[in-house]
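ugh ok fine here u go
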Amino acid sequence: MFEKYLIVASKLDKAGTNITTALSQFRESPLLTSMKKNPSFDFNLIETEIVDDNGINLEKINKYDFIIFASKHQSEKGGKTLSVHAPGNWNQSDFGGKEKKICLSSAIFQKQLFENLKKNAEEYELNNYQVTLECTHHGPLIEKPCVFIEIGATPQEWEDRRAAFVVAKTISQTINSFRENPYNEVAVGIGGPHYCPSFTKIQLNSNIAISHIIPQYAFPISEEMILQAIKKTKEEVDFVLLDWKGCGVSEERQKIIDLLEKNYISWKRTSEIGK
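structure:
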């Protein structure tokens, strides 16, 4: 069980600073939290871009059980998004982290965070925002379990105080209500686009909790990628979920299946899951 959380945001990131400002109203005084065993969170505002490893104080981070990166999401295509994803790089490290290295993450925490984000977006009528999972991407690379929660995808959305409040409430709510769930099946995802419609539906509408997602654009898939996705999931992984149409041609799909079966890893198609 996680007890001490650290919320990391960049001073250069308007969405991140707006989220932490909104989140401060949900924070009890350090004196009160020290007298109780309830989970608590602190803030860490960094001077560099949030994906930049050089701005991360590892000594500070290592004092906490779980790290939540609150940040903007940037896309040339624009669009209004609220998104959740695990950090890491399947191949090159163009935006922080290290090449072919991913962070530790919790499928069950991600699921509860994402479910709360969806409910809060609906409650506060952010109807024009798409609430979506993203595949695992970008830095920084840390050893503590972590997750990104983001507002996208242009300066207009980064300045949206209602969106920042929804994300802040989601973070606080998830920290306070998080419980390890032995009934969740835990999976990693393979295939599909950067925004993950099939995995998003499964995360919201099934008993399955998803941690890392390897998108089709990161292919060709390798044994190392699959094993690292499983190893870097805090919970025991029950199976791999394949976005069948998003796994390329039949030869590519068969290669993935061969790698999974070689390592005695169970797998299912996303189409087999009720959503």
